TrEMBL record, chains A, B:
Gene3D superfamilies the UniProt entry points to: Winged helix-like DNA-binding domain superfamily/Winged helix DNA-binding domain (1.10.10.10)
PANTHER family: HTH-TYPE TRANSCRIPTIONAL ACTIVATOR HXLR (PTHR33204:SF38), TRANSCRIPTIONAL REGULATOR, MARR FAMILY (PTHR33204)
InterPro entries cross-referenced by the UniProt entry: HTH_HxlR, WH-like_DNA-bd_sf, WH_DNA-bd_sf
Species of origin: Chryseobacterium geocarposphaerae
Name of the protein in its database record: DNA-binding HxlR family transcriptional regulator
Molecular-function annotations in GO: DNA binding
Ranges that cross the membrane: none
Taxonomic classification: Bacteria, Pseudomonadati, Bacteroidota, Flavobacteriia, Flavobacteriales
Cited Pfam families: HxlR (PF01638)
Residues covered by the HTH hxlR-type domain: 18-117
Keywords, in A-Z order: DNA-binding, Transcription, Transcription regulation
Amino acid sequence: MNRKTSSANEINKLKFHCEMDVAMHYVGGKWKTVVLWYLIEDKKRFNEIKKLIPNITEKMLSIQLKSLEEDGIIKKEVFNVKPPLKVEYSLTDFGKTLIPLLQYLVTWGGFVVKEKSHSIHTKQ
Amino acid sequence: MNRKTSSANEINKLKFHCEMDVAMHYVGGKWKTVVLWYLIEDKKRFNEIKKLIPNITEKMLSIQLKSLEEDGIIKKEVFNVKPPLKVEYSLTDFGKTLIPLLQYLVTWGGFVVKEKSHSIHTKQ
DNA sequence: CAGCATCCTTTATGATACTG
DNA sequence: CAGTATCATAAAGGATGCTG
């Protein structure tokens, strides 16, 4: 695999130094991977996601959903115009290409929790 | 896989909401994955990494390397005490468990660059 | 229900100069 | 060579109240 990534990539006016930058643009930050994780299973409504992630604020959830939608990772469907609104979020086909990555992240995270809780790992 | 992650995990005094939080703690941020990517191949010196990532500042590289070392992902070896110093950074065994993830990230990033540059993907 | 607006604090990142 | 110190901005995150 090529590590000599001296040329910059450009996607929608954004410049990236390397493929890693590109990937992290889509899944980086504190919340995106968590939100996406809960959308793998099935489409969900705003408050469903909110309840699944107790410590996220409505503002942050709103920002993440908007960002993911703009990036084409998820799609938003509005089912009625008058309150109470019904809105559903789901992965796009493009977003589904992230599933293996999300699964690996969760698996690795779980692995680390086990390792660390058993104090197998120490600082080197 | 279990998505009901209501219980918090704790690693070295840090609390995490779910496995995803844990994983992102180790590889999140703008630089960590990039730095780690260049360390897969072989151990490297500070200025070697710096040259491979032209737009990183010494300060940021220093912060990332310190953080990765504290997390046990990389190890630092100092070979002489008097300037000019020789310091080498390399992945620990624990850090090497991240390699598949890093490879997937780069592969996915490359895939996206291709897709987007061909305008196959549009906002939904 | 599904958000947005506002104000605020905390992290992250950056530019530049300097040191053992 | 391998960093640190300082000053600064930008981005992320959060609390609270309000709205169509």
